[in-house]
Amino acid sequence: AKRAGRGSCQFFSADMNAPFAARLWLENQLSQALERGELHLAYQPQVELRSGRIVGAEALLRWTHPQRGAIAPADFIPLAEETGLILPIGEWVLREACRQAATWRAAGLPPLMMAVNLSARQLRSANLLERIDAALQASGLPPEQLELELTETSLMDDAEAARELLGALRARGIGVAIDDFGTGYSSLAYLKRFPLARLKIDRSFVCGLPDDGNDVAITRAIVALAHSLGLELIAEGVESAAQREWLLALGCGGGQGYLFARPLSAEAFAHRLAAD
Ligand code: C2E
Ligand code: CA
Ligand code: CA
Ligand code: CA
């Protein structure tokens, strides 16, 4: 039992709903993770499927807690969304990813697209554009080297506002990719009204290639849709050579997945890029 009289410990009792307490603990820890320097970014190569050449990097958030060790994004990003902590954390991700891409560029490595995930909450925040501009300016990264990954659901949340934002991003030369494409229920009619650069075929479809007939059909349909709308494609979660062959045959140009590389530390990524 916790001793009474030691700050917040006295509020803990055997009755306390354990998941609730765990959530409060996690939220408290997450609110301090940034200033404690516990967050960092991993970078996963995005490749041209035909050649395997690295054309981009997706920045993926990592949290290493001093006691609990690595905590998976799936275990803390939803919480960060709900609490609003994703706003300061997401801004840090944006600045850090831009800084890293600019550093690689300055070091003479081949220029690449830096893809940054944006949550629905960030998309709805009033000063997002100013924050993006500030991150680009502070880093010196050309806007053409930044791509933002958004989900269908967050776009459809407020389609009119999203369309305006995407227009402003396009005017700056910043690309937008739809993440996890095919898992939301976006209306195709809306899709063509957004100025988009790319669709990312969700891993759940790639996973079933080539044996699952439904996944083949869905992937084929997404590729056809992207081609007819003039959008680029990246397949997520490419793990096998057979999946790569199928994606190429279906007409998908880009890929990302363990077949090529896991998410890497900045150092390891730079080595890969230099050797590419
Ligand atoms: P996502 O955007 O769909 O990112 C791709 C996820 O798939 C990553 O998981 C990556 O490690 C994993 N992955 C890549 N290739 C393969 C593969 O071949 N096989 C399998 N099984 N998995 C693969 P991760 O890093 O755990 O991130 C999970 C999710 O957390 C991301 O999904 C994204 O939605 C979210 N996330 C990560 N970083 C950020 C961030 O900075 N901001 C926001 N808002 N969300 C983030
Ligand atoms: Ca993503
Ligand atoms: Ca994704
Ligand atoms: Ca996915």
Rg: 20 Å
Low-confidence stretches: 1-10
Measured by DSSP, the beta-strand proportion falls in 15-25%
Could you tell me the number of beta strands?
Answer: 9
Protein name: cyclic-guanylate-specific phosphodiesterase
Outline the secondary-structure elements:
Blueprint (H helix, E strand, L loop, with lengths): L17 H16 L5 E10 L5 E12 L3 E3 L1 H11 L2 H21 L6 E5 L2 H5 L3 H12 L6 E6 H6 L1 H14 L2 E7 L6 H4 L6 E4 L1 H5 L5 H17 L2 E4 L5 H10 L3 E2 L10 H10 L1
Parallel strand pairs: 2-4, 4-5, 5-6, 6-7, 7-8, 8-9
Antiparallel strand pairs: 1-2, 1-9, 2-3
Bound molecules: ligand C2E and calcium ion (CA) (3 copies).
Protein name: cyclic-guanylate-specific phosphodiesterase
Organism: Plasticicumulans acidivorans
